[in-house]
Structure formats: C-alpha cells, structure tokens
C-alpha cells in the first residue's frame, strides 16, 4: 500500500538503495587509477591513490541475478591509509572473503588447496571475479546514504549455494532410472504358418 501523500515521514529516505543485508551474486570490476607500487604487489595500474595519500581499489559491483539484476554498487577496497593499518587490514579481509566466495572455499578450510586458492598473481586477478556479496548501506562524502559492499558470503552461509547458482536441480523426467526409456528390445516374431505349397526356408546362419 502506498503511504499518505500528505505525510511523508514513513517514506523511504532513498528508494534507489538496495536494502541492507541483501545477498546477491555480483561481478567485480576495478576502475584503474594508474597507481603502482611493485614493492607492495600493486601493478598493472589498478590501484588509485587519493589526495590524502590513501591507496585503494575503486570498485564497481554489478548485480548479476535476482530482483536487483544490473544494479551497480560503487565501493572501495582499502590498500593503504596514512592513518594506520586498520583500513588495509579491512581490505585484506574483504579480498580473502571474495576469494573464498568466488572459489567455493570454506572460511575455515586451511588445506593446501584452500591456501593456494587464496593467493593471486596481482590485483588484476580480482578484476571480473564473480562472487556472492552482502550489500550494506554506508555514507558517502556528502553524508548521503549509499550502498556499499563490506563482506562476501562464503560457502559456510546458508544462502550461498542458492545465490551462487550451485543448487542441484532435480530431474523432472525418467532420464536415468526408467527402463522403459531405454531403446526397446527386439521381440521374437510370432511364427508364421508355412503354406503347404512353399518350400521350407533354411536359416540364414546355415547359408
């Protein structure tokens, strides 16, 4: 039901926002900022250096499926802040969860295979990766509400499989189980009475 057109206190503050806590499959695209620091592993021009000296990935997330398909969320992944390691640590935590989500790894999995899957050759490996995100609401530089992504959803989460599209689809017909679906076996022909005037036929194997 639409609210009153004379009292707007119960209207949404920004109807364009995706609701906080929405779980959706997204594709990450990095907007290159042209800043490199090979000593940190930041190559390929993917990093951006801000006016304050902070370094980050300028990210665009496109929702791939569901009611918000094709919607975009713009958010940053922190790589460095002159104010301390907190922002960079948050960025590394987010990237770890993105890799876990994209590659189907439990956050608790410490096997050699899981550890190898959490390594990348460079920041460019994150460009184009698809994963399940939990969409949040933050505040932009103007103080307005805006969508952002602070965490990825990993296989440990109950909604991961459905959002990632990995839910098994049950068979809808007798594809593998019904013998009747197999090719019909030839049945022996009913004997045909021989005409008294016809000569007896020799079996083909005797020819």
Descriptive notes:
Residues 166-184 have a biased composition (Low complexity). Residues 162-207 are annotated as: Disordered. Residues 185-194 have a biased composition (Pro residues). The protein has 207 residues and is α+β, with helices and mostly antiparallel strands. The chain has a domain at 22-164. It contains three helices and seven strands, in the order βββββααββα. It has helices spanning 86-102, 112-117, 160-164; strands spanning 22-31, 35-37, 42-49, 55-63, 72-80, 130-139, 145-152. Strands 1, 2, 3, 4, 5, 6 and 7 form a seven-stranded antiparallel β-sheet that branches. A hairpin with a 4-residue loop joins β2 (35-37) and β3 (42-49). The longest helix has 17 residues, at 86-102. The radius of gyration is 31 Å and the shape is globular. Residues 166-184 and 192-207 have low confidence and may be disordered.
Per-chain topology:
Blueprint: E1 22-31, E2 35-37, E3 42-49, E4 55-63, E5 72-80, H1 86-102, H2 112-117, E6 130-139, E7 145-152, H3 160-164
Antiparallel strand pairs: 1-4, 1-6, 2-3, 3-4, 4-5, 6-7
